Amino acid sequence: MVDFAQYKINMNKVKIPNKVKYSDYEKNKDLKNYYGLPKQVVFCINCSYSNQKPNSEKEYKHNINTAKPTMDFVDDVCSACRMHKIKKEIDWEERKKELHDLCNKYRKNNGEYDCIVPGSGGKDSFYASYILKNEFKMNPLTVTWSPHIYTDWGFKNFQSWIHSGFDNYLFTPNGKVHRLLTRLAIDNLFHPFQPFIMGQMYFPPKFAYKMNIPLVFYGENPSEYGNKSNNKHTAEKDLSYFTSDINRLDSFISGVQVKDLISNFKLSEVDLEPYFPPDRNLLNNKISIDVRYLGYYLQWHPQECYYYAMEKGNFKPAPERTTGTYSKYSSIDDKIDDFHYYTTFIKFGIGRATYDSSQEIRNDEITREEAKLLIKKFDGEYPERFKNEIFKYLSIDRNDFPIQSPIFEKPIFDEEYFKLLTDKFRSPHIWKRENNNWVLRNSI
To answer: Model's pTM, two decimal places?
Structure first.
């Protein structure tokens, strides 16, 4: 295990990061590898992923000392590409029949909802809800965990989704609590999306339990993008990722143990309730929640979902290219999204153009050579366009946070502070200093 002692959280104070020692990045051997990442960087021979790509995490256990699970490689081929090869051999008509059988089992004709579809009104959630309602004659209830800060086009797409014929429950977490947790997540984990991911992941099964709706549909299985092979051959979502049987006070949110969030930051269990996973045993007391991936039954294709959502629901792409990549129709509803993908580039050497191009290589939409050029041009682009609004959002000023603000050595989040954080989370085995600039040691 890598020694992360230098990054141990001082719970009496959230300290300003020290400037990194450039000498740690100028040598070429005995390099530290943060987050438990593989020391040797290997690229897939088919797509643009490397073996540094993180997989889904049990977020309620995630802190700075957690070794990140990463995608596995066999003969220099990543698990996502191996999964794509398996998909080509699937009898999709037979899978579609299985979906009909599943829907026949759960369908209600008494005026009640019979399944839940989580989403934001993006292309994938629109496709899932629309096809379940119109082709499989289900009665879906859509549920949404609110973005941090809506983009104008993201909110319009959300409204278009609802007005194309769906009921929706929108959950918006306590703004002050969510801001504080997001700030702590970027300070402690360099992961501004973590509290959002936790809420988004846990809200649908909790809501299904409360509403007595036993079936929840997600889109694609994470194995499509590199999760471990034991997730590949099933339609069911692994319970361990969205339920827990540990004491909630011992769990982590934003890299901080819950008991410390309560004692040091003066948050209550009620404040943190939306971020706790449902209790694994409680979830099955009333009804057994059946959580499925629709992509197991239907041949999922992101671009086709986009065209489908445009045709059926007036979905609109963003009016501008998304920072860090070349597309403008995927994951476009939240202004903090640019910062999320920038942080993955810093920590893992993998930016948004890598994610997008890998998917499109597998779907035969671009070649690997084209992907290399797109990655070189766009990956790791600095999140400039919404930065002032995001920096204000991440600032824990004394007026809004009279109790928590003094805990931060630098309560006001600005560009200088962000750049100190950025350098703190660069792993020496991924980054080097060259001519006074940061350069990836290995690139596709």
So the answer is: 0.93
